[in-house]
Structure formats: structure tokens, C-alpha cells
């Protein structure tokens, strides 16, 4: 299995000994040794995955990198966060997924209204299995614990990913900006309940919903 390690906070180094990884297309910045690159459409899921993403609008174009040596990845100088999966599932915005072990399965999952307001369709990307994934964030990501005693409410523009036994729901009619006396914010929040982790970034991605 490939070894993921960070060089600084904005560059991912992946050491491979005949292994393969799937990475965001165009994210390779350097490599040494012998590497082969192959562009994949739909997260490497074949026709079904490609059609699903086209219908839902959850865009994800990746490349497979395989070989012996080290390959370095980065994405617009964003911060990189490593996530270890042990047979569980990671839900992540497609634009925030940088690289995964090739053995991890990627797919799509229905998430409801949040995806539609961000222009990403009604689905989000899933990564499942045992191995490592690298996700990016605009600024250092904050990992927040969700427990049955302490549910978590998140601004949809700051949400990156979540994992664990977590249930996701949406609350409409109130925004974080409403509390601050500002307009133009999302007209809902994301509520997480259960037991798991939620990754948020310290800035908000642009949304198209406005106050709808």
C-alpha cells in the first residue's frame, strides 16, 4: 500500500513500490522514479459512475498514478489533511478530495438540499474501505467531534467532509449570518447527530442559493 506523508501543510508526498493511487486530475507537481499516469473519468467507477456523476452534477475527474518512487501532489496551495479509513466511509465534497489509495472505493451518496444550493447536484462523493485519503481545505481544517450528547450544526459553505456513524439533516429558515445581522447567507444549516467526525474549513466556498 502506498505511503502518504505531508511535506509542509500544502504538499502531499506519496511513496509507491508498485502501488497505485487515484488523484485529482492535474494535481501532480513532481515525481521521481518510474511512474505511469492514466486519466480516469467518474472516479474510476466505469460507465455507471460516470453517468451518475453527470446526472447529479457531482464532478470528479481523477487520474491513476502507478509505479516505483515518490509522487508529489498539491492543489492551488490549499491545506492538505490526511484521513485514515478502517473499513468505514468518508463523505467528502468532490472539489475537496485530492488523493486516495487505489484500493479505496469511490462513489456517490444522496445528501439532499445542500448539494443543490452549492451547484454540486444532490449527491456528494464517498470514499470507502481501508487505506488513506487526502482532502484539501481553504485554510487549516478543523476536525470536530460529534457525539450523541453533543450534536453539531455547521454552515454549509464551511463543510468539507464527515465520517463515522453520523446522521445528516438540514435546518431551513435560519442562517449563521442572520444571527450576525447580515444578509446574503445560506437559508439553512447542516445538523450532524450520532458519533463521528466532521471536517470544516475556516472560510466559506461560494454558493448560488443566496437567501432562497
Automatic annotation (TrEMBL):
Q: State the source organism's domain of life.
A: Bacteria
State the Gene3D superfamilies in the record. Mitochondrial biogenesis AIM24 (3.60.160.10)
InterPro entries in UniProt: AIM24, AIM24_sf, Trp_RNA-bd_attenuator-like_dom
Among Pfam families, the record links this protein to: AIM24
Which protein, by its recorded name, is this? AIM24 family protein
Which organism's genome codes for this protein?
Streptomyces atriruber
Amino acid at each position: 500500500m502506498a505511503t502518504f506523508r505531508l511535506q509542509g501543510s500544502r504538499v502531499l508526498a506519496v511513496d509507491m513500490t508498485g502501488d497505485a493511487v487515484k488523484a485529482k486530475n492535474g494535481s501532480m507537481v513532481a515525481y521521481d522514479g518510474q511512474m505511469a499516469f492514466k486519466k480516469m473519468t467518474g472516479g474510476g467507477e466505469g460507465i455507471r459512475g460516470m453517468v451518475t456523476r453527470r446526472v447529479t452534477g457531482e464532478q470528479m475527474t481523477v487520474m491513476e498514478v502507478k509505479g516505483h518512487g515518490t509522487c508529489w501532489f498539491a492543489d492551488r496551495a490549499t491545506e492538505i489533511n490526511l484521513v485514515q479509513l478502517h473499513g468505514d466511509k468518508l463523505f467528502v465534497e468532490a472539489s475537496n478530495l485530492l488523493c486516495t489509495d487505489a484500493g479505496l472505493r469511490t462513489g456517490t451518496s444522496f445528501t439532499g438540499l445542500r448539494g443543490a444550493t452549492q451547484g454540486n447536484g444532490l449527491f456528494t462523493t464517498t470514499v470507502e474501505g481501508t487505506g488513506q485519503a487526502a482532502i484539501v481545505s481553504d485554510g487549516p481544517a478543523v476536525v470536530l467531534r460529534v457525539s450523541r450528547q453533543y450534536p453539531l450544526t455547521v454552515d454549509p459553505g464551511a463543510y468539507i467532509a464527515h465520517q463515522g456513524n453520523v446522521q445528516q439533516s438540514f435546518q431551513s429558515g435560519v442562517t449563521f449570518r442572520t444571527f450576525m445581522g447580515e444578509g446574503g447567507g445560506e437559508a439553512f444549516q447542516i445538523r450532524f447527530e450520532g458519533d463521528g467526525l466532521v471536517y470544516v474549513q475556516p472560510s466559506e466556498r461560494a454558493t448560488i442559493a443566496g437567501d432562497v
